[in-house]
Amino acid sequence: MAVPPPSPASLSPAVSAVSVEEPPGPALRPSPHRPCLTELRLSAFAGHRRAGFPLGPVTLFAGASGSGKTTALRAYEALARLGGGAGLAEVFPDPVACVPQWARPDAQRRRGFRIGCTADGPAGPVRLDVAVQAEPELRIVGERLSAGGLVLLETALRDPGRRTVQAAWHTAGSAPVTRAPLPDDRLGTALLPLRVAGRTDGQRQVLAAAEQMLVALCSVFACDPRPERMRAPVPCGSGRLLGGCDNLADVLWRTRAECTRRHAQLVAALRAGCAGPVTDVLAEPLGDGTVRALLDRGAGPRTELARLGDGELRYLALTLVLLTGPGVLDVDPPGEVPDAMRALTVLADGFDRALDVRQRDELLRLAVRMGGRGHIRCVGAVSDASWAAGTDGVTVVHLDA
User: Who's near 80: CB < 8 A, 6+ residues apart?
Assistant: First the structure.
């Protein structure tokens, strides 16, 4: 197979064709109580090879079209979904598209890709590396969870005729490791809390590392507002914002009544980023079971969202996402984990798409402010990040096409 199971040599964090601008001043470290990803590794994924990307409270991937910005965000989202327990076929509906073009099949016609990440938090830096076979069958052929140079979980495909991998995790008891088969279409790290008893110090170390990785991965919201879908009235529903922000009016109907303080912050942000006066943003129900959103202009007439430009709608949606948090977004945060112990990561493809200079700068300031509080992190993609370079709290990763 062209992509072997993970090994320390083959999954090095070396950066290829990437330059990074770290935020000025002291290094920003995550809160020890809030696990979060601090590195994304694309060892062999689509157009990326042996690439490692640092992640801060606000990270912007910058580069020309085709440089791999969207690919990096999709890899991040894929790891998040695997950490949430999703199956490979659900996460990678077109796995061959993830295989690097330069990868050649081995004698058994096998090809695949490798991705990984590092999560920091109470257990210290924890690394996860995954090798996926895309052809001829989609399956995980190798996985490694490690911390402090110690391998805590390792899986390998021993028998291609069986839909399992052989897993070994650190025990440090009467036996140094415990071995058991695991399904080859699920992330082994996500299954460890159900398989490890936690009776020995070694097992407790494995559980702490796995849970930190899963908490960091699971709190992710991929967001790419679609203005063309946001203008028409929408049915009243759950009040949880979708990734395309189609149901923005329904969410505003809910949030305006639930949290007056955050709503006031939203109005202040819109006043700074929208043309003309803005005294309120609200939603009103219509007689057919739908709801529409409007801007209150004060003395003037209210403006329906249908009359707003694409930039104003994207600015409104992304501002709402950054201010409301996981309780309003369509995400499934890890169960039994208090809000104070997790940070939501917003993946924003086209972070500055259709925005003017004022909207772009205001949105970045809001992202930095929220990132500084530790509750919400943001990973975005932009074509040119020169306007954000040198901003305190922002990590810029420049990709070469």
Answer: 217, 218, 220, 345
